[in-house]
Amino acid sequence: YPTSMMHIEEVCASIVRSHRETSQYRVEELQALRWKLFSREEIHAYQSKSMDEMWQHCALRLTDAVQYVVEFAKRIPGFRQLCQNDQIVLLKNGSMEVVLVRMTRAFNTENSTVFFDGKFAGTELFKALACSDLIAAVFDFAHSLCALRLTEQQVALFSALVLINSDRPCLEERGRVERVKKEVELALSHTLHRDNQEGLMNKLYQKVAILKSLCSLHIEKLRWFRQLYPLTVHSLFPPLYKELFA
Ligand SMILES: COc1ccc2c(n1)CCN(C(C)=O)[C@H]2C(=O)Nc1ccc(OCc2ccccc2OC)cc1
After folding, report:
1. Residue 145's closest CA among 187, 196, 99, 184?
2. How far is the CA of 219 from the centre of ligand 1 (A)?
3. What is the pTM of this model?
4. CA dist 187 to 37, 55, 58, 216, Å?
5. Any atom of ligand 1 within 6 Å of the Cβ of 66
6. Closest C-alpha to ligand 1, atom 3
7. Ligand 1 centre and the CA of 115: distance in Å?
8. 2: buried, middle or exposed (CB in 10 Å: 19+, 13-18, 0-12)?
9. Cβ-count burial of 227 within 10 angstroms (0-12 exposed, 13-18 middle, 19+ buried)?
10. Which DSSP category does 164 fall into?
């Protein structure tokens, strides 16, 4: 496998470069915007949207992020050598998890706001979605991951680890995924060792468990929404969002 030939440092450099090349927004851009908040009138306008309008609005924006994560996955050493089925299984289960990991870079813990539509929004802006538990869980996760104060390199390697998960259901060549995962784990522990932060490894594994429940909640809410508005999901949601999550 290409990764076993590559020295661990090359695997690290390759994943960090891929993360940087596929980050829709640079951290500096997001930092510059973090105090650009929505006015009361703008918040009220979002809250006055119909449920299906707001769900479609969010699905469109999240699909932007998912597309960049798909591109990131394809550049992880060894991912493209996996069979098609397994690549899809890893993306179906892991892409929203990586979006949520990346979202912490667009989160302002000081006023609990997240980047949305060009400004930073609090949980109240998403009221029309009628899934305050999901939004609360997304914001709580963002707070808890921000608290670890990960570097961009650590975010890159953690994102790769979240994606290359050999425990996913329906994998056809679990052994091959396992080997790629081992290389990514080595790359992450190599980086944490170099950063003198070995203690982070098990904290990051605890976050993997929270991500899994968060994404199950997202799927559950989407199923509930789809029951209420089947046509909206069928004809107005982005195909990629439907393919991966519906
Ligand atoms: C990778 O990091 C980021 C960070 C921010 C953004 C992006 N990427 C992509 C571009 N983007 C734009 C254009 O606004 C931002 C975005 O989508 N923000 C946003 C969207 C929906 C939110 O909550 C609703 C919700 C959350 C989870 C699951 C389902 C949901 O609703 C159905 C909260 C914030």
Report:
1. 99
2. 15
3. 0.96
4. 38, 37, 34, 28
5. no
6. 103
7. 7
8. middle
9. exposed
10. S
Query: Given this model, what pLDDT does residue 13 score?
Result: 95
Q: Assess contact for 164 and 177: CB atoms under 8 A.
A: yes
Contacts of 238 by beta carbon, 8 Å cutoff, 6+ apart? 59, 60, 63
Distance of alpha carbon 156 from the chain centroid: 11
* Residues 95, 110: Cα–Cα separation, whole Å: 27
The reported pLDDT for the residue numbered 4 is 53
Residue type, 95: S
Q: Look at ligand 1, atom 34, and give the residue with the nearest C-alpha.
A: 116
Where the chain has pLDDT below 70, the residues are 1-6
Say yes or no: CB of residue 61 within 6 Å of ligand 1.
yes
- The string of pLDDT tens digits covering residues 131-144 is 999 999 999 999 99
CA of 62 to the centre of ligand 1 (A): 5
ipTM here: 0.98
Q: Is the CB of 117 under 6 A from ligand 1?
A: yes
User: What are 64-114's pLDDT values in tens digits?
Assistant: 999 999 999 999 999 999 999 999 999 999 999 999 999 999 999 999 999
Cα distances (angstroms) measured from residue 173 to each of 2, 143, 166, 244: 17, 36, 9, 20
CA of 58 to the centre of ligand 1 (A): 6
